[in-house]
Amino acid sequence: MNDRLHSSADTPSGDASDQAAISAKKAEKIAYENNKLHKRLCRQVGQAIGDFNMIEDGDKVMVCLSGGKDSYALLDILLTLRERAPIHFDIVAVNLDQKQPNFPADVLPAYLEKIGVPYHIENQDTYSIVKRVVPEGKTTCALCSRLRRGILYRVATELGATKVALGHHRDDILETFFLNMFFAGKLKGMPPKLQSDDGKQIVIRPLAYVKEADLIRYAEVKQFPIIPCDLCGSQENLQRKQIKGLMREWEKKFPGRVDNIFSSLSTVVPSHLMDRDLFGFTALQATGEADANGDIAFDEEPCSTGASQPADNAFGSQIISLFPAD
Ligand code: SF4
């Protein structure tokens, strides 16, 4: 008989305690990873707010809540940061109920009541307008977004909001950048902060530094009551989907490439592009002074680290010191 086959660990109670120990270790690891994710999101959002001076003392920030993972995360992280920020700002959550079929109108109010956030639900049947105006088979998103935007800006003014916060993240910004480059021939992305097109609001995107993959995980961790985004029956933009696929493939084959592309959006050298409105090529004369940004005839291999700049205002610095990198 082989004695080693009869250790106490092999008894039924030994198995059970082994299993319990393994489960406890697993739960500990998951809790550790979740906490790390939360800290990372707080740090990245705090840094973006600081870098672009998105939120100032006394602001009233209107958080546009669609019921998707991104806007839930945006609200959640802003609430955390507000408790630790060196400034005071108010938050009001706003959802536009576009009267899409089967929209569960009670989900967001119930969630917002539970977490104690002031909110406003704006009821506007843009769904019927879009269905009536856009011919069958044509994409409805352009008109739908235009209508939504106008309504949200109006609501922001009515609520006295000084900032309108949207849940676009790093991947949205990159996809928009490539869509504009590939299909509109423009170097144009989605800015972290800009005046609205009616000139009345400042629109901010505090998730600008956050990867979509992190938001997907965060939504699972927090169990946000997600409202599906296909209630309108519209298909996801095919070109955007292709760009998403392209970025996924790059990330797999060339880790770090997408980070470098993102970093390049904040490291623009107008004299090395071709926009005559951005750089005075036509009037250019040699100054006789050495210029590190001057032409070196043949470029060296770029070797960007993709590192972002440290935050340069009180908000960003305080948040980064509270949620340091691991
Ligand atoms: S997916 Fe539907 S709800 Fe979203 S912008 Fe397009 S039409 Fe509007």
From TrEMBL:
Q: Where is the tRNA(Ile)-lysidine/2-thiocytidine synthase N-terminal domain?
A: 60-226
Q: Which SUPFAM superfamilies match?
A: Adenine nucleotide alpha hydrolases-like (SSF52402)
Region (Disordered) residue spans: 1-20
Cell location: Cytoplasm
**Which reaction is catalysed here?**
cytidine(32) in tRNA + S-sulfanyl-L-cysteinyl-[cysteine desulfurase] + AH2 + ATP = 2-thiocytidine(32) in tRNA + L-cysteinyl-[cysteine desulfurase] + A + AMP + diphosphate + H(+)
What's its EC?
A: 2.8.1.-
Q: Which pathway is this protein assigned to?
A: tRNA modification
Cofactor: how bound: Binds 1 [4Fe-4S] cluster per subunit. The cluster is chelated by three Cys residues, the fourth Fe has a free coordination site that may bind a sulfur atom transferred from the persulfide of IscS.
Which parts of the sequence bind [4Fe-4S] cluster?
A: 141, 144, 232
List the keywords (alphabetical). 4Fe-4S, ATP-binding, Cytoplasm, Iron, Iron-sulfur, Magnesium, Metal-binding, Nucleotide-binding, RNA-binding, Transferase, tRNA processing, tRNA-binding
Q: What is its main location?
A: cytoplasm
Cofactor(s) listed in the protein's UniProt record? [4Fe-4S] cluster; Mg(2+)
What is a GO molecular function of this protein?
Answer: transferase activity
Instruction: Write down the top EC class of this protein.
Output: transferase
Short sequence motif PP-loop motif: positions: 66-71
> Pfam family example for this protein?
ATP_bind_3
Query: Looking at the record's lineage, which domain of life comes first?
Result: Bacteria
Assigned protein family: Belongs to the TtcA family.
In UniProt terms, what function does this protein have? Answer: Catalyzes the ATP-dependent 2-thiolation of cytidine in position 32 of tRNA, to form 2-thiocytidine (s(2)C32). The sulfur atoms are provided by the cysteine/cysteine desulfurase (IscS) system.
How does this chain assemble? Homodimer.
Q: Fill in the misc note.
A: The thiolation reaction likely consists of two steps: a first activation step by ATP to form an adenylated intermediate of the target base of tRNA, and a second nucleophilic substitution step of the sulfur (S) atom supplied by the hydrosulfide attached to the Fe-S cluster.
Q: What is this protein called?
A: tRNA-cytidine(32) 2-sulfurtransferase
The species is Herbaspirillum chlorophenolicum
